[in-house]
Amino acid sequence: SRKVLQETVGQNGRLLCDLVPELELILGPQPELAQGGLGEAQNRFHLLVQSFIRALSGPEHPLVLFFDDVQWVDSATLGVLGGVLADSTRSHSLLVAAFRDGEAASLHSLPQMVSE
Q1: CA-wise closest residue to 70 among 104, 22, 93, 32
Q2: Which end of the chain is more exposed for a tag (fewer CB within 10 A), N or C?
Q3: Which residues have CB under 8 Å from 17's CB, separation 6+?
Q4: How far, in Å, CA of 108 to CA of 88, rounded?
């Protein structure tokens, strides 16, 4: 429900709404973010995405996320996906990623993430 999602994002909803502006229609107006360091902001964002996915999924409403052309994502996005996949408290959700094996850059961390 809207209330559960609002409680989940707390004071960090602006992070998600800046990424997906349409979420503000569901979450309502979001306050500006408190300033912090880059490492703190990345950690806060990763935890927020994990919490948001857990809040969206449940036994009666499983969630499937499909990511296409993952060979083109940047390392920051792979970090978020890796964090979601590593979240041991995540249940009732399935992440599907499609990529072209031969097109992943040699220095890209996608092959390593796939093997893990």
Answers
A1: 104
A2: N
A3: 23, 24, 27, 30
A4: 25
3-class SS of residue 4: helix
Provide the pLDDT for residue 106: 47
Go through 52-62 and write b for each residue having 16 or more CB atoms within 10 A of its CB, e for each that does not.
Answer: bbbbbbeeeee
Residue 36 makes CB contacts below 8 A (sequence gap 6+) with 44
Average pLDDT over residues 37-62: 86
- Phi first, then psi: give them for residue 58, nearest 5 degrees: -165, 175
Angle, in degrees to the nearest 10, between helices 2-9 and 38-56 = 160
| Alpha helices by DSSP H, the chain | 2-9, 13-19, 23-27, 38-56, 75-86, 110-115
